[in-house]
Amino acid sequence: TILLGGSSGGRGEDTSETLTADGQSQPSFDLVSRTELSCAIKFEDKVIITGGYNADEQKAVSEYNMEGFVKHHPNMVLGRTGHGCGSYVDADQNVVLIAVGGWSSSMHNTEKHILGQASWTLLGPSTYEFEGETSTWNTGAISVVSINNELIGTG
Fold first, then answer.
1. Sign of dihedral through CA atoms 47, 96, 87, 100?
2. Which DSSP letter does residue 90 get?
3. Nearest to residue 105, comparing CAs of 129, 83, 134?
4. String of b and e for 52-71 (b: at least 16 CB within 10 Å)?
5. Side-chain half-sphere of 101: how many Cα atoms within 13 Å?
6. Bridge partner residues of 71 (DSSP)
7. Is 96 exposed, middle or buried (0-12, 13-18, 19+ CB in 10 A)?
8. Which residues face 119 on adjacent strands?
């Protein structure tokens, strides 16, 4: 198990540590940017980190595996911090990344990225219907999970 980053206070925000079988931890690899208020999309053999707290990190998308940094992916359209993210496989067998909400100008919007393409696509406002009226989500601090290729958001 590898833990990436940490919270505010300047400690551990750009480092990782490995948890050993005996419950101890040891330093692992450095991260290319801080992970505070970012979002992680888990895959079998990698993790993709989206956004973050600092202005220069809010659009960033970085990939890591068990050895460390792998590559940058195209930046998101909107800067995101405290947002939700996830992935699914579309009908054409493309892996699609989703980023939704956040505590910034992006909080009412969703965007997607098909891995291997050059850019993200803004999908527009995240809305819901209640008693016949359509409203826009206030989606700061949303969490997203993928179950059986379906995305579920809470928060």
1. positive
2. -
3. 83
4. bbbeebbbbbbbbeeeeeee
5. 21
6. 63
7. middle
8. none
Question: Which token pair is 47?
Answer: 């993790």
Tokens (6 digits) for 134: 């359509």
pLDDT of residue 106: 57
Q: List pLDDT tens digits, range 102-155.
A: 876 656 788 999 999 999 999 877 666 667 776 665 566 678 888 888 888 776
Here the tokens at position 81 are 């911090």
Which residue, 5, 98, 122, is CA-closest to 54?
5
Give yes or no for a contact between 11 and 42, defined as CB atoms under 8 angstroms apart. no
Contacts 24+ apart (CB under 8 A), 42-49: 43/87, 46/70, 47/4, 48/73, 48/87, 48/97, 49/4
